[in-house]
Amino acid sequence: MEAEELALRVPKGFRFGVATAAFQIEGAVREDGRGLSGWDDFTRQPGRILNGDTADTADDHYHRVAEDLTLMKRLGVDAYRFSISWPRVIPDGGHRVNAAGLAFYDRLVDQLLEAGISPTATLYHWDTPLPLEQAGGWLNRNTAERLAEYASVLGSALGDRVDQWITLNEPATVTLLGYGLGVHAPGKALLFDGLPSAHHQLLAHGLAAQALRAAGVKGGIGVTNVHMPVVPASDSAEDALFAQLFDLLQNRIYADPVLLGHYPEVSGPLAEIFAALSEQSAEDLAIIHQPLDFYGLNYYAPAKIAAGGGIATGNSEEAAAMSGLPFRLESWPDHPVTAFDWPVVPEYFGVALTEQVERYGQALPPVYITENGTSCFDQLADGEVADQARIDYLAGHLAAAFEATAPGGPASAMDLRGYYCWSLLDNFEWAAGYSQRFGLVYVDFETLTRTPKKSYDWYRRLIAASR
Ligand code: IFM
What we know:
The protein is of the alpha/beta class. It has one domain: Glycosidases (TIM Barrel, Alpha-Beta Barrel), CATH 3.20.20.80. Helix content is about 40%, strand content about 15%. The strands form three sheets. The chain has an eight-stranded parallel barrel with strand order 1-2-3-4-5-7-10-11, surrounded by five helices. A three-stranded mixed beta sheet has the order 6-8-9, covered by helices on one side. A hairpin with a 6-residue loop joins strand 12 and strand 13. Helix 8 (about 140-160) runs parallel beside helix 10, helix 9 (about 170-180) packs across helix 11 (about 235-260) and helix 15 runs parallel beside helix 16. Bound molecules: 5-hydroxymethyl-3,4-dihydroxypiperidine (IFM). The site of 5-hydroxymethyl-3,4-dihydroxypiperidine (IFM) has 8 residues, from loops.
């Protein structure tokens, strides 16, 4: 779809942005007093990351902020969602603040404001300081207290200028891939025994929101959850049961406590799996259930679930790890897939938004899509990257979101305020290393040269025509 045609459907005042995360773009992992994170350690363990890639240089954004800001200015975005590297600011995860690390973000925020771009800062996008990781990471309640202390430092230093604060990014991914399947840092394959990591992250969210408020930040406070609509692979009772289980593991146990103040009530054969959560105290749930100024939602794809373990679709590390589970992800044969093998089913973005309204109703604050985008097999040829598949993905998904939230649409009760495309730049895609390109801007990982893709131009036109 042409950008100008889609622009006609964009609500007035809608905010467009781009999103990144510190560990995926910054590099400079040993500079200016930065400490190591669990991910630095994980990338050094043989066999963890595809092709043995590390994020030591990544996009070298730490040294190329000016160039990346110019790319954002030319794109015309209203807002930039970045994350702050916890070990850059608090190298040992304790009480000592690294002034040089904090100064990097202080300058970034000022530069964004000078460029007329609103800063949206994520406190935690997966880079736990290594000493905290070694002390149990999110299995240790102390990590939540430490995140709150870090939030207080950031709130005092940047609270007068950051427009939106996001406490956590995708706690579900951290728990499922980091503590359940062991394909992300810290590499623990605990399956359902990894669930306490979910509770401690949620507690960290609540404590951090309180700390930011106590620091008097001017910006809004929210959290980002990823949502995958889940469908059973067949009409069988088993598939339905495991689809329900996956929905709980992927979606509900994160969104329900944050928005409703309690974990989902699970009865029957699944109850035992969630005992570690349902036994948590009312005091903790009250901390987790903080008033939110907005809710951040990441959306990439739906999931089709069948009973029985076996080979899952998607990246092969994950597939192998998932074979230990009593269910599997099925493919969507009638739909195209991304380079990651994720199904492209744009109408399910509308379903994802509708599920928020159905599940959370009045409890749902204004919503921002804090990530959406796709990895493609991008090729740089004659100085150009003709990524039509990314343009189609973005256009299809945005159209589905506007249709669902328009008056008369199934999610019309949602106050959808903005959209951040993942991502500004090709970057370090966790266990997949540099093999998956999500950027609007192509990065040559040898020379670090940036080349805007066709999708960058399409997004630029969409933003310009929406004004
Ligand atoms: O790159 C990640 C990001 O860090 C979190 N959300 C999903 C993206 C694509 O996998």
